[in-house]
Structure formats: C-alpha cells, structure tokens
Amino acid sequence: MGRRMVQVDAFTRTPFAGNPAAVCLLEHAAEDRWMQSVAAEMNLSETAFLHPAEGGYRLRWFTPTVEVDLCGHATLASAHVLWEEGHLPPEREAHFHTRSGLLTAAREGDWIALDFPATPARPEAPPAGLIDALHLTPPRFVGRSKFDYLIEVDTETEVRSLAPDFGALARVEARGVIVTARASTPGYDFISRFFGPRAGVNEDPVTGSAHCALAPYWSERLGKDRMMAYQASRRGGEVCVAARGERVGLSGQAVTVLSGELA
Fold it and tell me: What CATH topology corresponds to 122-245?
C-alpha cells in the first residue's frame, strides 16, 4: 500500500457533495505526530489512517487538530476504498479495530452499511452560553450523548437557518453540538446539522457518528426503527439509519474524487 491517499465524498452519490474524507492506506502503524500533521495538511473534517491488523484493519481518525474516538463518514470512505481498489473482495465485510471497538461495513448494492455503537442522548440542562451561541429560542429538548449535545427545535426551517457564534460555541465542553428537527421535506424523517468548533470543524458536512445519537432519539419519538435522515449543511448528505438497541445501522453511498501518493 505504501502511503496511498484517496479523497472520498461520503454519504452522497454525487461528487463534491456529502462529506469529504481523506483515507491514508498504510502498510503498518505510523507515528501519531505524523498522522496529525497529515490531517492538518489535508485540512478536511477527518482523515482516516488504516493498516492491516488482527484479520482486518486498524483504523484511526484525525481532524486537522485532534484525534477523535468515532467517525462515521471516514469509516464509510475507508470501506469504499478497500473495495474499490481491490484490497477486499466485494462480498467480504470490512472489519475495523478502533478506539470505539470493532466496527464493520458491508456492501448492499450501491450502498455501504456500517454497524456502530448507539450513543443515546440523556436529558441534560444546557450549559451556560450554549443556547445563546446558537441564537435559538427555547428548544424542545436538550440532552447529551457520550460525545455531543443534542438539541431538538420546532421546525426544519430553524435547523436550516442557524448561524451560530462559533467562538462562543467552542467554549462549550463537548466534542460538538447536534441540532435537529422533524423533517418537512418529503422523503426524510428528520434533519440535522452538526457544529464542532472545539474539535477544529465549525460545521461538519455529514456526521455519521452524530446519527448514533439521532437514530435512537428519533426512533423513540417517531415509533420507527428505520429512517431516512438528511444533514442540511451547505454540501448536504443522506444517511439511512436503523435503531437496533445498543447498536445503530448507518448506510450511505460514496464516490472517489482524488487519489495519489504522499511524498
């Protein structure tokens, strides 16, 4: 593999939409400082690094500034690259050993299905400054998952029109903030946006790991186990979610836009 780098747009079937991730294919583990430097150079919301290990692949994710514990779109992108470049046969599941345990990916036609841990949000009073930083009226729900705050507002329009104060939002003690509402756009069950300035990403285009909290949240409220979600960033992207108790199914599509070798 050497140090091959592939850029993939995840959770979309169209180039230049969805969430771009860089995938770095390695023969063996690399130094943390080097991986963080590469992620800063790529300057995408996530860069994934993977190498063969334990009958599958060791997978780590870095934003331009920090390593993170869970990332959906870069996992989707990694699986896409393994199949597209022939590192795995199309009928074989991809197994990833990560800081969040074993994650798997399987091909389902043009879609890739991920199996992730659920991270349900428990009701929690918002910390000082959070609601003001989002310029929100009192929301319907505020809770906190393992990683993020989750906030439900009244309408899809409110989610789409948010213009946060990112400086103030970066002072909130959490990886990020998810803002969501029941969808009014036909074909979708719920809509969301994700803000993570504390992790070096003001707004993430499509956040797979956020849907590990969104899936159980909306499953309970809508009485559905399988739902279609839309993340309403400027690029936008679709995530099909399945609530499965302590696990969450995340399905999406991906397309390669760039490939090459690191110097």
Answer: Diaminopimelate Epimerase; Chain A, domain 1 (3.10.310)
- Give pLDDT tens digits along the chain (263 positions): 568 999 999 999 999 999 999 999 999 999 999 999 999 999 999 999 999 999 999 999 999 999 999 999 999 999 999 999 999 999 999 999 999 999 999 999 999 999 999 999 999 999 999 999 999 999 999 999 999 999 999 999 999 999 999 999 999 999 999 999 999 999 999 999 999 999 899 999 999 999 999 999 999 999 999 999 999 999 999 999 999 999 999 999 999 999 999 98
**Which tokens in the block code for residue 8?**
């993939």
Two structure tokens written together for 25: 């294919």
46 is catalytic: yes
Q: Of residues 46, 152, 156, 238, which has the active-site annotation?
A: 46
What architecture is the 3-105+252-261 domain classified under in CATH?
Roll (3.10)
Report the predicted TM-score, pTM, of the whole model to 2 decimal places: 0.92
